[in-house]
Design brief:
InterPro entries: MULE_transposase_dom. It comes from Gossypium australe. This is Zinc finger, PMZ-type. By secondary structure, the protein is of the alpha/beta class. It has a single domain, classed as Nucleotidyltransferase, domain 5. 37% of the residues lie in helices and 28% in strands. It contains 4 helices and 5 strands; from the N terminus they run αβββαβαβα. Strands 3-2-1-4-5 form a 5-stranded mixed β-sheet. The protein is globular and about 70 Å long. The model has no long low-confidence stretch (mean pLDDT 82).
Length: 141
């Protein structure tokens, strides 16, 4: 979908596109910007029917906290008519304040942690080492 100019009076093309052909799964993340403008960028991505990922929304905030996430989720809820989040799934890593903001803004959404971030780095390393040992035993048998 390409648009040449978007104004406040423009029809809600993206909302119709999102509602018609996209999965009810959203991925939320935040990253620190360390350049000239020190801030945090919050993003939400979605998946279409062909499993292609696309950027739904982004925002620049002063810091990663419950208030910033709540503000961002409120705007997203309004723009996409998410209401209370029923039927939607949000996937994220363990962002500061995000869980509380999700519970406040989208109380009926299903929230899952990204599998890679579900455990701490040390727990992940221990699991990998354990798996390597088991694979070695399997090869030796």
């Amino acid at each position: 979908m390409a648009m040449h100019r978007v104004t406040l009076d423009s029809p809600p093309y993206f909302k119709r596109f999102y509602k018609a052909g996209c999965r009810l799964i959203l991925g939320l993340d935040g990253c620190f910007l360390k350049g000239h403008f020190k801030s945090e960028m919050l993003t939400v991505v979605g998946r279409d029917a062909k499993n292609q990922m696309y950027l739904v929304a982004w925002a620049m905030v002063e810091g990663e906290c419950t208030d910033s996430w709540a503000w961002f989720l409120n705007l997203l809820t309004i723009d996409l008519d998410l209401e209370d989040g029923f039927g939607y799934t949000i996937i994220s890593d363990k962002q500061k304040g995000l869980k509380i903001a999700i519970d406040e803004v989208l109380p009926r959404v299903e929230h899952k942690n990204c599998a890679r971030h579900a455990t701490t780095e040390r727990e992940w390393e221990d699991k990998v080492e354990n798996l390597k040992k088991k694979m070695k035993k399997l090869r030796m048998s």
